[in-house]
Amino acid sequence: MMSTTVASSRDIDVRAFVQRHQRGLQRWLRALGCESGAAEEHCQDALLAALHRGIDARPPGVASAWLRTTARNLFWMRLRHERRQPPVRSLDEIEAAWQAVGGDRDDGDAARTALRDCLDAADARDRELLEARYRDGRSRAVMAASLGIGEAGVKQALRRARSRVQQCVEGKLGGQP
Predict the structure, then answer these.
(1) What's the rounded Cα separation, in Å, for the pair 142 and 154?
(2) Burial of 50: CB neighbours in 10 Å, binned 0-12, 13-18, 19+
(3) Mean pLDDT value of segment 54-64
(4) Less CB within 10 Å around the terminal CB: N or C of the chain?
(5) What angle do CA 170, 171, 176 make, to 5 degrees?
């Protein structure tokens, strides 16, 4: 005898709620400085708490704000338990930046696309520096040795490259509603 599973409308609603908020919530936690594995864990915990409290029945903007606050608190509780300091200085600045790139609207997809486009358009030297530092995780000392320049030179070159990419991203996002 073959068994079939029929999804209830509640299962579908829960699945849609999770799909709507999960990616953006993980990005939010990563923006706070949370490691990838911990971000996934805190995201799941926040989503479960939201479902338990009926937050999934609220408008998406309200649910997003509630989830961000809950996930942030979970992350900070872990930091306190581990006796570590938050890796960010100003939550208000991160929240403002998140709103500026439309994080609630599209889970940060527009900002990621703009960043990808700007990195693709960056000159080879800037792209090489940024990839070595942020993708490959090389220290400035290692980069300086491989490039044959001082650490201060690498620091300044990275600062300029980040500034150019930031201006490009801001220009691309400036046209959004």
Answers:
(1) 10
(2) buried
(3) 87
(4) N
(5) 85
